[in-house]
């Protein structure tokens, strides 16, 4: 700890006084506590207090998810069907608040950074227990990161937690203290470090035996899964359901100092499709349903009869866009490459897309127009000042004319060399929204005199074109996003394998791609979040100006939950259940 | 007879190698549509190419296709079906958890289908060209022409609006709290809808087979002889005609045995039934090759054995058939 100046992070400081104020307010009703100001439990002096109105204990929550979990191993879990099933079983050192999106203490009670921004020291809460009663210690944290960085265990956390090509050094300081040291200052550190901590006492034997990849697969008896989360899994019936029960050792309390969660039992029915989930919800056999934008009006009408409420989470993180192939390695005709590599061509297309038609027809009005790469759901990094392309066919034609494109007497748009503008837009056939968006875009572009064919294809075929053969012209695709733009570096940096329009460039092909690379690298190695925001603003502005991908619309996120549940605080970021421990059944 | 069975069983090996080789080759020919690992990058934009390569190597998928196939074959000989890419658990476990459910549904719908089709077919043949025969035939043609996914959708729609039957799954949410009898009733209750979708709607074809066969036999000389001898009509039909008319259906029964475990992906998918069909369909979409190959192998073994059983049964019911 030599020479380590202590800087307490604002978020760490913010919570305790906040909690303190609430706890004082509720002091009268609180059961016995060790201290008059902060709730405490026997053996767990500093539980985390979760805000919300005081609830009732007991009851069952019925939910459903599409598809079976792939694994119960949180390091290997990647698909939402796995993370959805085990997400409630494990906790990280820190977590993102579902409402404010701020990073908050979780298993760690506090942390501090060194002035050079490279060393982070975390202090675990005292008295934390695994769901089998064993204590949670710094050894568990060290073990978790040892597993993540193990080359024989392929996992995507490894990629997120690699700084300047090197793993983060993890050292146990004492039983409850753990220190991280990064090769360079790492801006996204706090948002990346909150990975689920694993129980060393349960997993070390199989890890040492080299069998970690097969450990905690879906064939594991659920009782073997030991975590720190609000629930423990009690049963898994493949293709039928997963059942969870309350974890008696959970580390959060309500404002009255009572150990959470309120709800006793959780049943997750596995359904083959979202349609099936919808039918079950309408029949009262599940308590919540993720309403799609086009279903919003119908669900809103049924609120009273179905005794549920549709919650509006505002813009979501998902986005659908049109991209043009600018990659020489795809074997595209030289003149087509010239169009797609021309900024004016792409801007012309961007002006020609009727986003309101997409919003109305695809999302039944429940969406907003999008022009830049980050969603307004990202309250911190979203830059509203990016260049916009409101629907304007005259402006589109004028912009195209600047690049030499002219509409002939036959109504066809031709480039300066006389090639008629013809291309194919690919998209995945199993995504109704994308096919619909592709059709609207096709109609819009034909108004300019382009000859566009829409080709819906199998998802795997499309992926193969995108990342291996590069044989495509234009594509309607979508990606899900998150708060931290750093996680999109595989898309935006010119070396990224998902840099769709020209993947894995040896060196940036254009000056603006070099600029974006530079800002991503700067933001990654800067710890000051305000400066990082400035760098990411630059990247959003460059992307919007260069339009390598033409954004369309961001749908809103909705969920329907039965009225009998209290403390529902739905947000697009946190989902309906980020505060599930305080959700309760009203009397 | 014993030598015949032995010869058939010995032939099973080369036949299976042939089937799996063709299947593997077909999967390889569809390479332009990518593999399982490639698709990961769209789901997790942060995943690095090195991680994807690591995963591919872990499953031996970085080798040339023919080495992959030989390795797979080598493991199969040792009864190791390999690991699923997406689940990372043994393929045998995945199939095992769903096989019993599929068997249950296949057998229940098989029983329902045969129990309805045989009597209806007999009735229809005996009353040939009557109004009832016409109605039954019309019904049969309608049932034949409705694809199973559509019949399942119709049933789902009916169940949704009437609230009479469960929409999804094989058990209720509170299944584990039920008594043994309660569990049995609960499963039976959930089985009704998929059984109707699969069983009742397959009655049409079977019934038509039975009708045609019986009509053929009824024209035979020995039936005329029996009638001339003054054997009661009921006895002529059931004892003399039906027993002979059933032969071709035995062959058909062998085929159905082969299909017992291949599941009914469409019906299972629509009615949320926890069977093999759903697993296989999903594995196909994801290109989870070992799961696909494992279930193909299982289906092939059953089909071949089903045919063998049908041939043996045929020899048993028809003394004219000899295999030596």
Automatic annotation (TrEMBL), chain A:
Q: Which residues form the Solute-binding protein family domain?
A: 103-492
One GO term (biological process): peptide transport
Single annotated GO MF: peptide transmembrane transporter activity
The record's annotation in SUPFAM superfamilies points to: Periplasmic binding protein-like II
Look up the signal peptide feature and give its range: 1-21
One Gene Ontology term, aspect cellular component: ATP-binding cassette (ABC) transporter complex
Name of the protein in its database record: ABC transporter substrate-binding protein
